[in-house]
């Protein structure tokens, strides 16, 4: 990392202060004249910088004469700064809630403000991330193309909210799980606490935050990118979207989990079974497993023979009877 980078700016450390801190880390127990000689700064400037470093907990003075400065270990110092910043952000969030409470209800959203249009892929991503970060009770998600973000990368904002105990319910369209690696990401989210289900017919992409705000793309074309979206605030339209989610939730099936510790030991080919139970077609299963379509056909045939099933539907029923999979939502 170069000296003129300033990664600690995120926790309130100015670029010049960080450079002096780095200098101290390389040569601790330096005196003021030694620092001046190494950095080219005047003694007066260094006094101000060191005073700021002390107030941030990045450096301390040693007893005795001449005065020497010792840097605090980076992991300890930065963790403390992050905690301080998080406390400040939490207080700001509470203040925002209090300010909203002071606003007359009729002015929270005027009729013309109940629906917003967000233009541009970057703006859509930013707004979606903001909505996830402000969720306090629950996040309801219909997951299907089109995507504004890379669908092969984990949703870091959701994972962060899950780690803080947010209730997240997600319904994945089977076509979304055909994207290479997407099923694994969905299972990772489920392992982190998301309540995940699968449906063959998710009509749109949608996210609802605390049943107060929703975001959905303007286009439902799966081949397009989500470069524009609609934000819907509390209204009868939002109520209808929540109702739609609940109807789909009741008819959706639980997302099969790979490597589940509760999976029966006698289940043959569990990875293949999980993909089939998720509703993926043979071509998509082959891509997920990294094998040929012919291999998938052979393994499916072996699985059905093991179950004594003539059709895939019958195989699902027989698997449920054996306790391999719970088809009840």
Automatic annotation (TrEMBL):
One of its GO terms (biological process) is regulation of DNA-templated transcription. One of its GO terms (molecular function) is DNA binding. Signal peptide: none annotated. SMART domains: HTH_LUXR. Pfam families: GerE, TrmB. SUPFAM superfamilies: C-terminal effector domain of the bipartite response regulators, Winged helix' DNA-binding domain. InterPro entries: Sig_transdc_resp-reg_C-effctor, TrmB-like, Tscrpt_reg_LuxR_C, Tscrpt_reg_TrmB_N, WH-like_DNA-bd_sf, WH_DNA-bd_sf. This is LuxR family transcriptional regulator. It comes from Nonomuraea phyllanthi. The lineage of its organism: Bacteria, Bacillati, Actinomycetota, Actinomycetes, Streptosporangiales.
